[in-house]
């Protein structure tokens, strides 16, 4: 990390040299002195602590920003960190859908203990449970299979038999599922709130693994500061 180096300390003098007639101090000079600005327009500091304080503020402004996903449910929130370097198209697609409120009021329509929870189907918004798991955004995206493994907490895209058939549905692993590696696109990971996923996966469900009581979600994308 590059440090911001602040110019050396300057001494502010409002009076003339010894032995010469003092020059009257103007209102403008007093204001500049109080604000730490010299007549040359440069910032001046009275002590080392002020310099360090400015350096810290400069470092704060240099922090990088990262977009993360937040899935809110009645059981709590799950925070997702994305892997744009491994699945740029899938990350961009998920963010676009979330920012467009596509996921809001969709449900986790498939939950299997010891495996995963799946959601993101717009069909799950209605009361017809027979079509849950069959919907999407009206388009598909190209697969981005990568070397990331389906461990607990991994967020990956659901698809049909065709590799390039993912659209909006995603799943979160509640246990390692390495047999999916290289066949489904991993694009994120839950970094906070896996206890929420554990609660969701254990709710009562029907013969199609669809929760008896709906579990709707709200998905948002927020920016947070991270250390470079």
**Major sheet: size, sense and barrel closure?**
8 strands, antiparallel
Which radius of gyration do the C-alpha atoms yield? Answer: 28 Å
Low-pLDDT regions: 1-23, 30-35, 37-43
Residue fraction in strands: 15-25%
* CA distance, first residue to last residue: 7 Å
Strand neighbour order, sheet with most strands: 3-4-6-5-7-2-1-8
Explain this structure to me?
The chain has 228 residues and is α+β, with helices and mostly antiparallel strands. Helix content is 19%, strand content 22%. It has an eight-stranded antiparallel beta sheet. The longest helix is centred in the N-terminal third of the chain and has 14 residues, at 48-61. It is globular and about 70 Å long. The chain starts with 26 loop residues before the first helix and ends with a strand.
What would you say about this model in short?
The protein is an alpha+beta fold.
Defining traits:
alpha+beta; 4 helices; globular; 8 strands; 228 residues
Spell out the blueprint of helices and strands:
Layout: H1 27-35, H2 48-61, E1 64-73, E2 76-82, H3 88-99, E3 108-112, E4 116-119, E5 154-157, E6 170-173, E7 186-192, H4 194-201, E8 218-226
Antiparallel strand pairs: 1-2, 1-8, 2-7, 3-4, 4-6, 5-6, 5-7
